[in-house]
Structures are given as structure tokens and as C-alpha cells.
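To: structure subgroup
Subject: Chain for Friday's discussion

All,

I'm putting the inputs and outputs inline so they're searchable in the archive.
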Amino acid sequence: MEKGSFTFNILLGVSDIAENRGELLKIKLGLAAKDSFSVQGLNVEAFEGAFTFKNYNNVLKTNVENPVKHAFFPAVSGFAVVDAPAYLHNELKNDDVLIKLSESVCYFRNGALGPGLAILRSMDAGLPESLFLERVLPSVLRTNMAAEYFYGNSVKDGDEGFSFGFFKIPEIDPKLIYSEAGLPFYIHPTGLCHERRYNSIDFLRCGEKVVFEREENNIYDPNAVHIYTEKGIDLGYVPRCIASILNFNIRRGASYEALIALVLPETFHPDHRVVLKARMLLEKAD
């Protein structure tokens, strides 16, 4: 039998914590070579509520025949199971890669772009991973990933390792997602390490609304956009390269709505712990 005919499955449990729902993705993969794979099929089953460790165990007991490797991701209520026929166990050398790639998907689907990108960078992700993400993530989310990668606070200047083509999106500046009315975008606030703002993180709740406030008298950055909860809790700033376009739109009458989509545990860097989901409204403010 040719290696190209070797197929196996990943069962990927992905939660949307803010919406309290989940999806079980059954991904059929082909083993193209020792260190390469390709997606050959995808089925999605919707679930009510975010996944729990109990759900993960139930999937292991009832949906899996030959588990090679599996893991639960508590920070994002997700899990992954690599399920392969016994004759493939010696051939499958990239099961660790597939688990890490699946973990990144769970972060991306919750808008946690920084941690997801950090996983991809640690893997030295290439074409197989890029094609995998193209199949399991919608274009608007991959655009968010690219915008965060090139303009957010997740990657330092000069550290970029992925090309634009890695994200498999149309050849337009991904930064424009912050100006597309109605389209959701995600950001990690910056500056949570300063002025003890990090002490407020554990008290934040998913679904809590936040507001963007221009700070035109900021002597360090006249385009600065400050972030507060509706009760006045200081959540730092919109990252500088993103703030410039939000500030531009707000000056011209646009308005944004935003909420807290995810709060990660304290094991993460403060500037990655909070995920905001926002969109520019269809109608400009009066």
C-alpha cells in the first residue's frame, strides 16, 4: 500500500466559550509522507455548551477506536484525539505536531490569537499546517490571525517568520478588517502589565461590554485608544498599530461595540490573557 493511501482521523472538540457552545470536528487526514499530512475530509457536529473534561472522556470511550495521542486543553475547553489504525501507529511520526496544531485551533476559535500564534511559531509551522488551518478556520478568522501577527502585540518587530501567504487569505491588507462594518475582529489589550491593571483581570467576565475611548491628548501617541469596561475598569490600550485605524474611523463618525470574549488564566502573559471581540457598527454615530 502506498503511503498516500494511509488515512486517519483527528477528533477536535472546539468550544466557543463566550457563546457557550461547541463543535466536534472529525477531520480525515492522509499521511502523504513521514512528516507531512493533508486534510481529506471534514465533518462538523454542533453541541450545546462548552466542552468539559467529562465530554472529552466520553468521546474517548465512545468515538475512538485506536487512539494514538490525545489531550484536553482546559484554558479553552477544547480537546484533540488522534485516532489511527493500528498498522499506522509506527508510520505516524507527527502526532505531537497534530496535537499542538489542534490546540492552536482551539485558541483561534476563541479569539486568543496571541497564544495560538505562539504555538504555531514554536512548531515552525509550514505548508501542511497552513493548509490544515485553511480547511478548519473561516477566512475572516484567518484574516484576524494575519492582522494580529503583523499589527498586534503578539509578535515583536523583526520576529516575523510567517509570510502573508501562510494565512491563505485574499491579497489585501488584513488591517482593513478593523474598518469593515459588521465583521468581527479580536484584539489583546496592551499595557496590562502597567499601573497594576493586571490585578483586575481575574474579576472580568466573558460577555462584559467594553468601550474604546480616544485619548487625543496622549503625549506618547496621539492615536491612542484607551479601553475600559462599562463600569470604568481600566484595561489598557488598543495596540498602537491597530489604534491608528480605529482612531481614524472614530474621528470620522464611526463607532464600535466590543465585549470580553475570553479571559485566560494567570499562567499566560498579562497582555495575552484578555481577548476582546469587537466590530465597527454599520451606521455611523451622530
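Points worth raising on Friday:
The chain has a mean pLDDT of 91.
The chain has two domains: 3-107, 178-280.

D.
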